[in-house]
Each structure stands twice: as C-alpha cells, then as structure tokens.
Structure prediction request, 217 residues.
Amino acid sequence: MSETPSQGATSSAPKKAQLPEILRSPEFLLGAAEPHQFPDDESLEVAFAGRSNVGKSSAINAICNRRKLARTSKVPGRTQQVNFFSMGENARLVDLPGYGFAQVPLAVKKKWEVTIQKYLAERQNLIVLVLLMDIRHPLTELDWQMIRWASNSKLPTQILLTKADKFKRGKVASTVLSVERELKNVPGQFAVEPFSSQDFTGVEAMRAQMSEWVTGS
Prediction:
C-alpha cells in the first residue's frame, strides 16, 4: 500500500483507455441484505466503508470513471445493502452501507450493523479496507471503531480524506499529517490520502492502487 499522498488534482478524469484493466468495465453484480447472499467464490474484494454521507458512492464512481455505478444521494443511508461490483474477472469492489447517522429505522440500522460486522469479521475474500472520512471531520469515534477493528484484524487499510476540495492545499497537507500522527501508535498497515470526487484529487492514485492490490502491478 502506498504511503505517499496524492500529488495534486487533475482537471478531469482520464480517458477510459487509460484506466487500469480491472476498472475498464465495472458492473453491478448483486446487493446482499444478509450474509448468506454474499458471493460464494474466491474472488478478491476491496471494501469501501465510511460514515453516512461521507461521499463514498461519489468516490467509487470517480475511481471507476462511471457516473452512476454506485447510487449517490444527499440523504444519508441511501446504500441499504452490501453491494458488489465486478473488477475484472477475479476481483470485486464492495460498497458497504454507511455507518453513523443514516436516516433509517433503528431496526434496519441494527440489521445493517450485523451484516457489516459479519462481512468484515468473516469474509475471507477481503484483502483491503478503504475507509473514507470527511477531511473536515476526520477520526470520529465511529471511525476509530473501524480503525481498531482493522488493526485487530491485521487488515491493510487505506484511509481517504474525502471532500479535499473544500480546503486549500496547505490545510489539506496539514490534515493528512495530523491523521497520520494519530495513527502512528495504532498497530497495523494504514495509509492516508486526500481525495475529492469533484476536482479528482487522489483519483488517479487510487486507480493505480486498486490495480496493485488486485493484480500486484
């Protein structure tokens, strides 16, 4: 996993031909409301997690160069199941329901929590967790719960500080350094990158990283 933050923004998304092979034809495969519905095979999986309304679906769409691959909404809690997307023939991107203040009934929220917990704790296919945080409000208590779980599980974790376009470059850099300092005392493999689906900060770096995780190149 790369330890180097993205080197600035790009003005537009690269052309489809420039995408890594695994991201050239991503497709929605299935949505699982319960663990028994998860795909039963050995394909590698990279899971995206984060608080409700952190920009997770927008990040997935930007990385995959698809405007509507993952459904976006200004209403927290739009992702209501574990969604699986193809990445080539032998890997998947997994979009987990947002945690935190999702505007859904308590019973539904508890069901999500059980499903997410089972996925994270028991899914043998999972190789990397991509944990998204709003750069303006990183490391909330719920984020720390995810970080501690990843640390205990020895799961490599890429932290994306979303909505980086809201800050000037100096503030972005200082926030990245602050989060990195907070994580230094946490056992495990963590990397921190600024990210924006609006000005494409970090998008190319994440595309290359996804390819490296899945294919080793």
